[in-house]
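In this section we walk through a basic example: taking a raw amino acid sequence and producing a predicted 3D structure, encoded as discrete structure tokens. The instruction is simple. Fold the sequence below.
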Amino acid sequence: MKIEPFETDRLSLLPLAVEHADEMAEVLSDPALHEFIGGVPLTARDLRSRYERLVAGSPDPSETWWNWVVRLRADMCLAGTVQATITTGEHGRTAEVAWVIGTPWHGRGIATEAARGLVAWLQDQGLRVIRAHVHPDHRASAAVATAAGLAPTGHSHEGEVRWELPTRSRADRP
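The resulting token sequence is shown next.
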């Protein structure tokens, strides 16, 4: 399996490249984006270093990092990122997903469209266990997770609720 670009109705999701750092530093510059995830906005230089590490891939052979930038085709600009960390364990492959959309694009359904597209793309790659962790007070991110087909579980990790794609029973499968 390898990362590939894919599209949704309005978006092109492109594999992350170091060259995206300058534009993404501006997209992710609002400190409000870090309210629930912590940290502060990175400079273009720091983001380039981070992207170099991400593009190089995980040093753990049982883990794969897939990161995309979200490009609005109509505006020809980047608006955020989505990511999937794929781990291989005794129960098969699991995808841990996340999304971040810059504040100028909030309220336009972009995070929802990107997350739905990501979940569908991962399913097309054969992944059936897809999860995300959402801060319990982050209603917008919970709405995105719901729209992407994920449901909250009774589990939490580091103060965030684990959401998962419900598994279908054999009777529900085509």
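Looking at the output, two observations stand out. The chain is about 25% helix and 35% strand. Residues 6-172 form a domain with the Aminopeptidase fold (CATH 3.40.630.30). In the next section we compare this with other chains.
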